[in-house]
Amino acid sequence: MKEMPSVIDSEVFLAFSTYATIVVLKMMLMSPMTAYFRFTRKCFANMEDTGMAKTPEDKKRMLRVDPDVERVRRCHQNDLENIIPFVVIGLLYTLTGPDLSTALLHFRVFVVSRLFHTVAYVLPLPQPSRGLAWMVGMGATFSMAYRVLSTTHL
Amino acid sequence: MKEMPSVIDSEVFLAFSTYATIVVLKMMLMSPMTAYFRFTRKCFANMEDTGMAKTPEDKKRMLRVDPDVERVRRCHQNDLENIIPFVVIGLLYTLTGPDLSTALLHFRVFVVSRLFHTVAYVLPLPQPSRGLAWMVGMGATFSMAYRVLSTTHL
Amino acid sequence: MKEMPSVIDSEVFLAFSTYATIVVLKMMLMSPMTAYFRFTRKCFANMEDTGMAKTPEDKKRMLRVDPDVERVRRCHQNDLENIIPFVVIGLLYTLTGPDLSTALLHFRVFVVSRLFHTVAYVLPLPQPSRGLAWMVGMGATFSMAYRVLSTTHL
Questions:
Q1: Which of A40, A82, B64, C10 is 20 to 30 A from A96 (CA-CA)?
Q2: How far apart are the C-alpha atoms of B58 and B52, rounded to whole Å?
């Protein structure tokens, strides 16, 4: 890989690449989890998805809102709202050339906080476990954003 | 463009850049499509958007949920949940230095699957066309994520 | 930072880095704003979030939809639908090597339009202020996408 610029060969970039992929894959797995709950709860959003029903009445009955499905969807939405900012700001942070140990601390705190957030949301665990997980993840992203803004200029 | 590092001049990066832009533009076009259905169906989410109504009763009647608008919005949400992971993982995959032909295969399969997904969702086409399109797109992203994780290290 | 490739040291990249971080931070602040409205309106989506209630009846009464909370959430969703495409296409645009002044114009128009969009949505201001802010932001992103597509090839 001689054509790679050194920043991309750097250990910080490789660490970012790995942790960003892990946390984005975790986010993507919320889609199959939603599908699983939709099929087991027989609860769909589109008429064409109710093919397993035998009568038109059954079809209509499957077009409903289920609390378990909605819980998984809220968790997925929270992932979109938090993981994507982490990926964007984490990439810019990586390019500011931070220490490997500081960068790893940020990436690991964020990824662990979001894995715990998902468990706390889906089970659910009693509050404030989910709230704290959310705040820790936000804190890691804000800390990286601070470095990006203080090493660049308008 | 002599200041460009070679990875960014590479054909894989140029291909990623083009396909990512196409698929993000497709996602962005869901917003005007939602606006189009909101205006033609006279169905809005905010009181200040009902300026075309003449009486207060008409305004209130326009604050409603319309099945066609909701269908386009669900398609848009599914795009957010699938296209953004493709862009993130696709960029990291591009930086691992894959073969051009393998990379093009991944990018083209994903983009075609999402274009077909939108058609299948909005018309709608009978299932499992939309479900299969969604799975093919997920598969392309998972395949790129596998390469990212196997060529980096924690 | 001698190991940085020159594209990343470039002034366009530093400008992108700053404006992208600002607008992503703005988007992230919609989460605490939603939390603020949820607590002051006593309106939650999850049973485990209603710990401040004293009786089971109070808990159930807090599981409701509040128009102020929904307004902030729609603003947050609109940010996801617009700011993330800006970040993706803005990064690719930055790597095409545009003039600094042209790039700054795109970034500043976008960031100002989204700050104004949030004010127009949350207060709310009368239409078409929010609609125009949304269109100006879309225009800036489309203009950058045009340059990305015309300087790359399939």
A1: A82
A2: 9
Place of tokens 């790039």: C103
Matching residue, tokens 């704290």: A132
The burial class, CB within 10 Å (0-12 / 13-18 / 19+), for A154 is exposed
Give residues with Cβ within 8 angstroms of B64, minimum separation 6: B43
Would you call C27 an interface residue with chain A, using a CB distance cutoff of 8 Å? yes
Q: Quick one: closest CA in A to C108, which residue? A: A154
Give, in degrees to the nearest 5, the angle at Cα C103 between C101 and C104. Answer: 65
Alpha-carbon span A4 to C74, nearest angstrom: 42
First CA to last CA distance, chain B: 34
Alpha-carbon distance values, C64 to A65, B116, C109 (Å): 14, 37, 38
Contact between C46 and A126 using a beta-carbon 8 Å cutoff = no
From C80, C73, C139, select the one nearest C106 (Cα to Cα). Answer: C139
Contact assignment for A14 to B153 by CB distance below 8 Å = yes
How far is B52 from B39, CA to CA, in rounded Å? 9
| Alpha carbons C152 and C148: distance in angstroms, whole number | 6
Q: What count of residues does chain B have?
A: 154
Q: Give exposure, A113-149, as e/b (b: 16+ Cβ within 10 Å).
A: bbebbbebbbebeebebbeebbbbbbebbebbbebbb
Q: Do A4 and B95 touch (CB under 8 A)?
A: yes
The answer to whether A71 and A34 have CB atoms below 8 angstroms apart is no
The alpha-carbon gap from B53 to the nearest alpha carbon of chain A, in Å, equals 30
Residue A5 distance to chain B (closest CA, Å): 6
- Does residue C145 sit at the B interface (CB-CB below 8 Å)? yes
Average pLDDT, chain C: 90
C14: contact with B, CB 8 A cutoff: no
The Cα C114–Cα C131 span in angstroms is 11
pLDDT of residue A152: 64
AA identity, residue B66: D
C-beta separation of C54 from C48 below 8 A: no
pTM beyond 0.90: yes
Task: Give yes or no for residue C152 having a pLDDT over 70.
Answer: no
Q: What pLDDT digit, counting tens, does each position of B107-128 carry?
A: 999 999 999 999 999 999 988 9
B127 vs A: CB within 8 A = yes
